[in-house]
């Protein structure tokens, strides 16, 4: 008797929940209709292509197709991990991303804090325009500028020649590649990345700064105790996303900056995948390398999010 009552109660609960969901959908159906195009496009162009990732586990042949090709399991992954190029390419990718994160992450924050101290609206807008402008320069143009300015006869070498009496081959020497790549990335992207912090700082109540002034707090103390706590949640989210994409370096810029002599440090996973996949035609092997890179990114994202949540009072990406 008791079991039948419990079953009946559960049925009524499920029915009530279903009716509540149906009523909610009827009430807000227009919002879901607005969401539908974005959802459909995401399913088609983001999740649909994931089907092709199975060629990483096959001896893929364009003639036989994806389903007709033979399964080889983890052979392509083992081939990459045992390759003599693996250590060099993996470390090049990791170093370039890690150094870029360490050097580039604080710069937008510092720019936002400095911009927040500019009180004249006209001056502030002009400074912001100068900082944001490099973001809209094409990657091809940026790399072209690097080759021109850092060439043996370029303006930078003309200055160095006053001291060294001979030009420095910046774009050909492997030891200069990472620094040129990272510093040019900071120049083009730091201003644009500071927008989110500037917007957050604009919401700080001016009365807090006035009260701090009355209490005798100096500029650094106000930044430490008022501004930084305001943007800390945003800093955590941006850091998690950046760390989660630590292995996803922009292909275009690295490929355009490569020369035959700087490859020992310039060859990274995205350029390697391009050369092996599209140029050499080894689609299965290049897919395995790309999938390996994606898995590393996912693991890093989950790990960094877990660590940040522990250090940031439970606030993280999810």
TrEMBL record:
It holds the Pfam family BPD_transp_1. It is a multi-pass membrane protein. Keywords: Cell membrane, Membrane, Transmembrane, Transmembrane helix, Transport. It comes from the Bacteria. It is found in: Cell membrane. Residues 90-304 form the ABC transmembrane type-1 domain. The chain crosses the membrane at residues 29-48, 96-115, 127-150, 179-200, 231-251, 283-308. Belongs to the binding-protein-dependent transport system permease family. This is Aldouronate transport system permease protein.
């Amino acid at each position: 008797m008791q079991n039948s009552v419990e079953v009946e109660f559960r049925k009524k609960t499920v029915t009530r929940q279903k009716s509540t969901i149906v009523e909610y959908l009827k009430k807000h159906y227009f919002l879901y209709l607005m969401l539908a195009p974005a959802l459909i496009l995401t399913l088609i162009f983001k999740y649909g292509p994931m089907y092709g990732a199975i060629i990483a586990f096959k001896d893929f042949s364009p003639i036989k197709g994806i389903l007709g090709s033979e399964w080889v399991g983890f052979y392509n992954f083992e081939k990459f991990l045992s390759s003599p190029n693996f250590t060099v390419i993996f470390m090049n990718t990791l170093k370039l991303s890690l150094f870029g994160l360490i050097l580039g992450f604080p710069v937008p924050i510092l720019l936002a804090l400095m911009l927040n101290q500019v009180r004249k609206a006209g001056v502030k807008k002009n400074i912001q325009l100068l900082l944001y402008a490099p973001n809209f320069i094409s990657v091809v143009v940026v790399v072209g500028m690097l080759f021109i300015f850092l060439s043996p006869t370029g303006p930078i070498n003309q200055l160095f020649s006053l001291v060294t009496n001979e030009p420095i081959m910046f774009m050909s020497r492997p030891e200069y590649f990472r620094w040129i790549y990272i510093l040019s990335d900071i120049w083009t992207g730091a201003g644009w990345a500071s927008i989110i912090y500037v917007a957050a700082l604009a919401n700080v109540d001016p009365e807090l700064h006035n009260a701090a002034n009355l209490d005798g707090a100096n500029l650094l103390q106000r930044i430490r105790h008022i501004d930084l706590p305001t943007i800390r949640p945003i800093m955590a989210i941006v850091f998690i996303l950046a760390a989660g994409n630590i292995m996803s370096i922009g292909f275009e810029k690295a490929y355009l900056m490569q020369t035959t002599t700087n490859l020992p440090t310039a060859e990274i996973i995205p350029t390697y995948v391009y050369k092996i996949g599209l140029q050499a035609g080894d689609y299965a092997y290049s897919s395995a390398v790309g999938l390996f890179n994606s898995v590393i990114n996912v693991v890093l994202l989950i790990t960094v999010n877990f660590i940040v949540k522990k250090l940031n009072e439970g606030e993280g990406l999810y």
